[in-house]
Amino acid sequence: MRRKQAEPAEFEGQADPALQGPLQQYVGYALRRAQLAVFQDVIATLADVDLRPAQFSVLILVDANPGIVQSHASASLGIQKANFVPLLTELERRGLIDRVAVDGRTNGLFLTRKGRATLKRANALHTVHHARVDAIIGTENREQLIEICLKLAELAR
Amino acid sequence: MRRKQAEPAEFEGQADPALQGPLQQYVGYALRRAQLAVFQDVIATLADVDLRPAQFSVLILVDANPGIVQSHASASLGIQKANFVPLLTELERRGLIDRVAVDGRTNGLFLTRKGRATLKRANALHTVHHARVDAIIGTENREQLIEICLKLAELAR
DNA sequence: CAAGAATGTTATGCTGTATAATTCTTTCGG
DNA sequence: CCGAAAGAATTATACAGCATAACATTCTTG
User: Fold this and answer.
1) What is the pLDDT of residues A123-151, one digit of tens each?
2) Cβ–Cβ of A34/B149 closer than 8 Å?
């Protein structure tokens, strides 16, 4: 006797079931798909400077806040301090940032000359991505998206 | 001689540097923070039914598309088919879904009675989360957010 | 000065995700 | 009909992201 069988659900020529069904109404699902797509594009865009999004964000933050302390920086970025250590170690190894002792237990973070140059290149590349995003959703929608996302981030506290 | 030192950057009473600086303008960063916050809330909300977001999404998809084939389901959810296997195995082990052979190499997916009951409970719980989101950003913004996210997801293709 | 808090670090595990290779089955062209 | 190719599910594996606990050192404060 054969195993129990079933007629397969057919979707030939139809739209993607997940983009049709109830999942489309879920904020979390939409955010996840969008975030993955955007990150993928950013990663590809920044490949030339060999920067992952997290690394890029550190450079941006340190550039805007020279001397920021490790614990402040990691908290501000929503990264556990424990996970922040190898991140910084790698950036320091590549000569992009400096950890400068403020006192015996505290490090201030600074971009090196090379770090600033790399960030400049990264920002130039990022402009391409930015333009791609704007081409898809429009400048107005992008600004509104960010505003809504900032509000949603409040959920985490 | 002491180690090189630096004055620490001060932020007493000031707003979070990452929420002030250039990072705030980046779509990817905003999406990531929002997605993490929303997922965290969903995870906490669905803890009572012991469903992770990915598991929840599978139940929703299968419920809306009974008999959907594994490969279609995984592709539709943006999950690698290899990673989809243990996900389904766990849901099957818990008696929430059935893998029914369509032919020797293909499985159709169905919710069990228990699976439908669990999904019903999960959806009820999710309503609470949904209300929390709406309370923060408003219904109109939620709908617009989803629309924008769907467009952004196109970046991944 | 002693107790406690702060900072950075190490170690560790879990989850999610990506890729390659394998097995088994079905389809299809000659 | 039969062998080759393609399809579906699975296994194995590796890596990045994220969380927690424990720890060493240093600073602060009563």
Assistant:
1) 999 999 999 999 999 999 999 999 999 99
2) yes
Cα of A66 to nearest chain B Cα, Å: 7
Q: Where are the alpha helices (DSSP H) in chain A?
A: 17-20, 27-45, 53-64, 70-77, 81-93, 113-137, 139-153
B69 interaction partners in chain A (CB closer than 8 Å): 8-9
pTM given for the model: 0.88
Nearest in space to B52 (alpha carbons), one of B10, B92, B93, B91: B91
Using the structure, give the distance in angstroms from the CA atom of B148 to the C1' atom of C11, rounded to a whole number. Answer: 42
Specify the pairing of strand A106-111 against strand B106-111. Answer: unpaired
Mutate which of B152, B154, B157 to disrupt the A interface (most A C-beta within 10 Å)?
B152
| Selection from A125, A148, A151 nearest residue A46 by Cα | A125
Q: Which residue is nearest to nucleotide C7 (CA to C1')?
A: A105
Q: What is the DSSP letter of B5?
A: B
- Tens of pLDDT, residue by residue over B40-58, are 999 999 999 999 999 999 9
Cα(A24)–Cα(A16) distance, rounded to whole angstroms? 11
CB A108 within 8 A of CB A124: no
Q: Which domains, from first to last, does chain B contain?
A: 27-156 (1.10.10.10)
Q: Give the A:B interface size as CB pairs under 8 Å.
A: 263
SS3 A66: coil
Q: Which residues of B touch A5 (CB under 8 A)?
A: 100-103
What is the helix (H) or strand (E) element at residue A65, kind and residue range?
none
